[in-house]
Each structure stands twice: as C-alpha cells, then as structure tokens.
Amino acid sequence: MKIKEESCIIVLLGNWNKYILSPGWSAKNIFNEPGLGVEIALDLGLPPRYTSEQSHVRMIPTEDNVTFVALQHDDECLQKMESLAYELVSKLSYTPVRAFGVNFSFSDQANKNDLLGLFKFSDTELLSNFGSQFTFNSVRRRLIVENRTLNLAISNKGDEVFFDFNFHYSVSGTSEVMSKIKNSVVENKKIAENLLKSVYKLDYDNLAVKG
After folding, report:
1. How big is the CA angle at 202 (ends 196 and 206), to the nearest 5 degrees?
2. Most buried by CB count within 10 Å: which residue of 3, 45, 65, 153?
3. What residues pair up with 86 in beta bridges, in sequence order?
4. At 37, phi and psi to the nearest 5?
5. CA–CA separation, 183 vs 210, rounded Å?
6. CA-CA distance, 36 to 54, in Å (whole number)?
7. What is the pLDDT, as a whole number, of residue 42?
8. Within 13 A of 159's CA, how many CA atoms are on the CB side?
9. What is the pLDDT of residues 153-172, one digit of tens each?
C-alpha cells in the first residue's frame, strides 16, 4: 500500500477574501518567509498556487476554500501544514468558516487480498451478461471513527484500488477550527493506516505514488 503524492491536504471551507490572500501577505503572515513560489494557471478560472520550499507545503486560495497541500508525507511536514492552517484561521479570525476536512489517499494492487471482491455488487453478473465492460467501480461509506466523521471512498480502476479518506469537521467559526484542528492531521493519518491494516490487511510501505 502506498500513499498518493500530494494527497495529504487540509481544506478550509468558508467565505475567504482572496484579495487579502496575496502571495506577499501569505508569505509574511502565514508562512513567515520572505517569499513563496507562485504558479498562475493559464486556464481561466483556476486559482493560483503558492509553494514554500522551506516547509514543503502548498497553499491554494479561492473565495470558497483555502487548501493546504503537504508535498511530503512525513509527520514533520504534516504538522507544518497543520500549523499553517491554524495560523491562517488565527490571523483571519473574522472569516466565516463552516467546515474543514483532512484528506489522505492510498493505493494498492487490485489482486492483493481479494480487493476486487469489494466491488462484487448484486448486478455485476447481470451487467456482464448484458455485454457491459467495467472501467471504474466505487464504494462510498460514511463512518464515525474515534468520535470523528470519516467519508471513505474505495474505487477500482484497472489493476489498482484507491482508498480516499476525508475526515470531515463541521464548525461554526474559526475558533472551533482552531480547537479541533490541533494535533488532528497526524492522528487522522494513523487512523487511516490502522483501518487499512486491520480491515483490509494492507501494510503501508511509506512510499508515494503519483496520482
């Protein structure tokens, strides 16, 4: 089992002022660095991306959400990403925030531990007899795990099975984000890894695969 590159993220859902969240302001007030790498998409409508070479964290601001992406998946980088998200809601405490999510994605070979058996639905044979070919299958679950909401999506494409974890937190404002996000990212990653090991008998080999 491997973790997907750039799949360790925090998403802060709210009404953000993207004009405040400029590269210069974010570098000074959130990252505490002299400057950030800035990528501007050529396609209209796509948000800019600010990347820190020091912390190995990317920030993607929009009006509806601000996303932090850990470019490495070790605990140190995840904790840094968490601290940056905390710093943002602390500095812009007046921003209406309604929820945040902590996400991870893993993949493994479909032939391992009969993972394809997860997609044997009651209509599989009927669809096959009809002449259908399956190009994508998915299963979605909403669970309460260790007093937190987990949206788990399991999908199969080709010879791989993907496990997408979304730990969802509904909040009433930034103060609640600050209280709930502390020490949550590494802990949620451990919960995801333990679930994959205990339920699906998959071992984490600490390598990243490209998404």
Report:
1. 90
2. 3
3. none
4. -75, 135
5. 27
6. 9
7. 78
8. 2
9. 999 998 999 999 999 999 99
3-state secondary structure the chain: CEEECCCCEEEEEECCCCCCCCHHHHHHHHHCCCCCEEECCCCCCCCCEEEECCCCEEEEECCCEEEEEECCCCHHHHHHHHHHHHHHHHHCCCCCEEEEEEEEEEEEECCHHHHHHHHCCCCHHHHHHCCCCCCCEEEEEEEEECCEEEEEEEEEECCEEEEEEEEEEECCCHHHHHHHHCCCHHHHHHHHHHHHHHHHCCCCCCCEECC
Both structure tokens of 195: 């679930």
Q: Is the pLDDT of residue 192 over 70?
A: yes
Phi and psi at residue 30, in whole multiples of 5°? -105, -50
What are the tokens at 200? 């699906």
Distance CA 113, CA 109 (A): 9
Structure tokens at 105: 């994605």
Q: Are 157 and 136 in contact (CB under 8 A)?
A: yes
Predicted model pTM:
0.92
CB half-sphere exposure, 101, CA atoms < 13 A: 20
Residue type, 206: N
Q: How is residue 32 written in tokens?
A: 């505490």
Report the alpha-carbon distance of residue 211 to residue 5 in Å, rounded.
Answer: 6
Residue-averaged pLDDT of the chain: 93
Which of 115, 197, 99, 98 shows the shortest CA–CA distance to 162?
115
What size, in residues, is the chain? 211
